[in-house]
Write a structure and sequence with these properties.
The complex is a heterodimer of chains A (381) and B (289). Chain A is built from 14 helices and 18 strands. Chain A is of the alpha+beta class. The two termini of chain A are 38 Å apart. In chain B, helix 6 runs parallel beside helix 7. Chain B has 2 domains: 110 residues, NAD(P)-binding Rossmann-like Domain (Rossmann fold, 3-Layer(aba) Sandwich), CATH 3.40.50.720; 150 residues, Succinyl-CoA synthetase domains (Rossmann fold), CATH 3.40.50.261. Chain B is globular. Helix content of chain B is 35%, strand content 21%. The chains are: A alpha+beta (381), B alpha/beta (289).
Chain lengths: 381, 289
């Protein structure tokens, strides 16, 4: 789960990390109220979950009230890489002389957290990592012990941070690790940490992603989950308890098990179609879950055709088929053509009893996907 | 022959009194697995799925000589259950639980390096040696005894590929689901190494997916250390960056690591053919035999 910059900075500020003065604004009037209070220069920053906001025009620095108004009008409501900007953070501009990168993340390969510090801050750190990996100092942390204070100092010194601010930067690193642990973060990144002309350090940006699997013990963060959804269908999927990702194509996909659903998406693409979504309904395929899954794909206006691929393991194919038929009892006809393919235990028995008045049935995954792709082409033609 | 489990494996089911635990314990027993006990704190002295329940894994080992566990414990308590299995010194612990916080698994992973126990999973379907033992939730009836090893990060995708093999009359030595989480116990390389050493395994299927770099490392291992032919499959070619595709581990990072393309290239470089469809994987395996 991704937090917005303003949410992450709120957490930083509460933990004592210096952040610029700021206010949240949802309208041009609120932006102007905010700049009147904060003064100039002021950064107006789109609060959407996309990287590279600055380059895409989602961050502007206003030096007077007219500029603030112009930028507020530009940014609020703009489409930023597919997301509509509804909220901006209005923030006091920092007079900086240097920019650092500081991050904490899980190193999957090592199975332990890693601290990262670089003096190449303020730019795309992934480019730095690819081109000059030595410019990023790294320090792994034993997750059982936690961070030893020397490690925060070591990674800061190894990065070559100026001696007069090293202590303050190490203190930020140490606090970020505490926040990483305390909030079950998967990643925290501050890019840049700004060093001002007065040699103060300020966290000028904030990325904080939370482990969704840990929300059961992070009640405050769980309350933010609703705001983290990026569209209404993703919100609906959350309510139904589905793993769902919306994509841009027109073939709706329902299946069970992450790997098999991903494979179904790939096959849609392979056979010349374009997947509209990833939707994993999990085990069992009970009628209620099937009903909800059909509701998901049918309420996506992009979907022209649906492929429904279930591998029945412990749950037998005939039970799955009964669940599907029961879910279909609400329909006289389906709004979009649906191809079903069942496999595994009792798959043949299952396919025999499927309601073929409403459904198309195919025996293999490959055939089902090809038919759904053809259906989509016919519908959209 | 087989790897990691056979008919000598003596299983304790952690969480056997829960709905999932009981159901799958019964399924494992029905398959012929030597399930000897359950372990659930506070339920010692009861019976579940026809086997005695103990309060601790330690007691199940003492009384019933268990040497492996299958863990069906809810996510909030699962890491603790894995620690109990590791600290008891079992040979194998299979963690089925989905949704264990990653930071918990980092702590487990640290301890794992200090023990001799093999951990499989978490968030995995388990392991099966057809005709001998099944530890986990795999549907036993789609498997057949044979000479192909299979290792996969996914559950239902594994079943799909196994189904394609079994339908062609190609059976399996052992099939292993290593799990879809970012931090797991047994890796592709661990399984591949064991299949390479197994005299009855004549070919291996490796099903990977997007996220992390385990498939790339496994590809290098195959190129350098394996004579047994391997066919691959990689799920998630069409996954967009930054989106978690169901499995917590199945995510392409913003920096472009963990892509399907990088994994397929690495496997091809190691001489491993990668199927565009599950059927093609079976074609490759058939051509090896």
């Amino acid at each position: 789960m991704k937090l917005h910059e303003y949410q992450a900075k709120g957490i930083f500020a509460d933990a004592g990390i210096p952040v610029p003065n700021s206010q949240l604004a949802r309208s041009v009037e609120e932006v102007l109220d905010a700049v009147d209070e904060i003064g100039y220069p002021a950064a107006i920053k789109a609060q959407v979950h996309v990287g590279g906001r600055g380059k895409a025009g989602g961050i502007k620095i206003a030096t007077d009230r007219d500029e603030a108004e112009t930028y507020a009008e530009e940014i609020l409501g703009m489409d930023l890489k597919g997301y509509t900007v509804e909220t901006v953070l209005v923030e006091s501009g920092v007079d900086f002389v240097d920019e650092l990168y500081v991050g904490v993340t899980m190193d999957r390969g090592e199975g332990q957290p890693v601290l990262m510090v670089s003096t190449e801050g303020g730019v795309d750190i992934e480019e730095v990592a690819a081109e000059t990996p030595d410019a990023i100092a790294r320090e792994h942390v034993d997750p059982a012990f936690g961070l030893h204070p020397y490690q925060a100092r070591k990674v800061v010194y190894n990065a070559g941070v100026d001696a007069d601010v090293a202590g303050d930067v190490a203190s930020i690193v140490s606090t970020l690790y505490d926040l990483y642990e305390a909030n079950d973060a998967t990643e925290i990144e501050v890019n840049p940490v700004m060093i001002t002309s007065d040699r103060d350090v300020v966290a000028a940006d904030a990325v904080m992603n939370i482990d969704e699997d840990a929300l059961f013990r992070q009640p405050k963060l769980a309350e933010l989950e609703d705001e983290a959804y990026e569209d209404d269908l993703e919100r609906k999927a959350g309510e139904y308890g589905f793993d769902y990702v919306r994509l841009s194509g027109n073939v709706g996909i329902i299946g069970n098990g992450a790997g098999l659903v991903m494979t179904t998406l790939d096959l849609v693409d392979y056979y010349g179609g374009s997947p509209a979504n990833f939707l994993d309904i999990g085990g069992g395929a009970k009628a209620e879950r099937v009903t909800n899954a059909l509701d998901m794909v049918f309420s996506d206006p992009n979907v022209d055709s649906v492929v429904f691929n279930i591998f029945g393991g412990i749950t037998r194919g005939d039970e799955v088929a009964k669940g599907i038929n029961e879910a279909l009892s609400d329909y006289d006809e389906l709004p979009k053509p649906v191809v079903v393919r069942l496999a595994g235990t009792n798959a043949e028995e299952g396919m025999e009893i499927l309601n073929t008045d409403l459904l198309q049935v195919e025996k293999t995954l490959e055939a089902a996907v090809q038919r759904a792709v053809e259906n989509a082409k016919e519908v959209s033609a | 022959m087989s790897i990691f489990v056979d008919d000598d494996t003596r299983v304790v089911v952690q969480g056997i009194t829960g709905g999932e635990g009981k159901f799958h314990a019964e399924q494992m027993i029905e398959y012929g697995t030597n399930v000897v006990a359950g372990a659930v704190p506070g339920k010692g002295g009861q019976e579940a799925a026809g086997v005695p329940v103990y309060d601790t894994v330690d007691a199940a080992v003492e009384e019933e000589d268990a040497n492996a566990s299958v863990i069906f414990v809810p996510p909030a308590f699962a890491a603790d259950a894995i620690f109990e299995a590791l600290d008891t010194g079992l040979d194998l612990a299979v963690a089925i639980t989905e949704g264990i916080p990653t930071q918990d698994m980092a702590k487990v992973n640290k301890r794992l390096g200090e023990t001799d126990t093999r951990l499989l999973g978490p968030n995995c379907p388990g392991i099966i040696t057809p005709g001998e033992a099944k530890l986990g939730i795999l549907p036993g009836n789609i498997f057949a005894d044979g000479n192909v090893g299979l290792v996969s990060r996914s559950g239902t995708l594994t079943y799909q590929v196994v189904d394609n093999l079994t339908e062609r009359g190609i059976g399996q030595t052992t099939a292993i689901g290593i799990g879809g989480d970012p931090i797991i116990g047994t890796s592709f390389i661990d399984a591949l190494e064991a299949f390479e050493a197994d005299t009855e395994t004549d070919a291996v299927v490796m099903c990977g997916e997007i996220g992390g770099e385990d498939e790339e490392q496994a590809a290098r291992f195959i190129g350098e250390h394996m004579d047994t032919p391997v066919a691959g499959f990689i799920a998630g070619r069409t996954a967009p960056p930054g989106k978690r595709m169901g499995h917590a581990g199945a995510i392409v990072s913003g920096s472009g690591t963990g892509t399907a393309e990088s994994k397929i290239d690495a496997l091809n470089d190691a001489g491993v053919p990668v199927g565009d469809t599950p059927e093609e994987v079976a074609d490759h395996i058939e051509s090896f035999l």
